[in-house]
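Bit of a strange request maybe. I'm writing a small parser for structure token strings and I need a real example to test against, not something I typed by hand. Could someone generate the tokens for this chain?
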Amino acid sequence: MSYTKDRFERDDPAWAEMVRLVRGDGPLQPLKARTLGYGANNSPLFRLFQAFRRTSPQGKNGLWSRILVVKDNERALEMAGLFENNEPDYLSDERWWQLVEEQDATALGVPPTGTPGGGTPAPGLDIPPGFLDEDTGGGPAAPAPPPSSGATVSPPSAPAPLPERRPIFELTRKYVHPTYRVEYDVQGFAVDRRDPGLGAGHPWALPLVDVATRTYAFLTDTTHDLYRSTTMTPLDALLIELSHRTMEFLRQTAPDATFASILADFRRDYCADSRLDAGEIIVEATSTLAHIAASLQGQLANGEGARLYEELSPAAREAIGRRMVARGVAAPRDAIAAGSFLNYAEPQTIRDFVAAHPELFLDGRFWDDPYVELDYGSPEVTEEARRVVRARYDGYFADAVWLASQSPLDLERAGRDALIRASLSLKLLRPDAAD
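Reply from user aminoacidic:
Good idea to test on real output. This should exercise your parser:
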């Protein structure tokens, strides 16, 4: 006898049990599951979902190796295309993993793995010894005269070693201008200021190192004063250099092309990660506050949720109740007791709650900064240190609440400095504890 899917699910009691074993109870998204009161999910489908659900790492350090993701989506698509085209350098995971490790090193402020104190040049850039003949003036070199008897022959002195070059995998890729299709295959290196390819005092250079494949080496001194700035990075320097070369290349064929428009096109394609997009920033602010609010659930003792809820102002409780009704919460008392009432609070209410109860979020609960654990031996000094911590986080929250309450048009009218500051506050509010 044949069964439709619906009838099979209804008539076979083992079906529901099988589904529960495979996917667990409740939604797969942890934040939504906690909001609805479900416990931890350790099912096979949830573990698979966790492995692939994130596109950015959690925490201020942002360790991309935890999720095996290249943060620049355009770069990831480019590498996938090279793999599909059977490019030898991209058939293994080595290039991908090198870039992931470099992203981690950038977040942690340490040298990338495998390059202690600076790495060595990537293979294929240095011309092998003996590949090019030395210039002898056009004729065959005369044989060296035999040494006179009794003369001491000193061995030839070894050439001075070149300063080490550390690969910058984030910059190593093919750059293509979106309009004029001028292409540059670039391999990036952080070099010492004494590197002969850089030139005395120059912050960067872009020599052509392989004529056959048109491969360039972007050599840059990352300790140069030029980079002691919030608005200038090695990527900015490289795009400036590529824009200049593109304009020179197009001088005869496209005389109307300007440096400004070429640079703008390059930055549009290769600087998406640092773009100040008003809509994206508002979404990030709302998501950050929601994540903080959801972390309260599961950390409270029995009855503590109701007590904390009663401490809120009548206006805050009324706003939470209205949101519970709008979202169809069937058991509001259970949500209040579990602490999930904060998921339905206004942004300012979340800020006020954290300011009143920092001990529920610090000391490794959501952020690693010590608060209750602070002890300077004097109650007055310890309280002063805790007051500093509270003020610092309240400043971050002020920016996040401001962003969450704005419209994209409002943020477009705000100053650039205000947007940069508020965006950095969102980064500092990311959780330190693993999700």
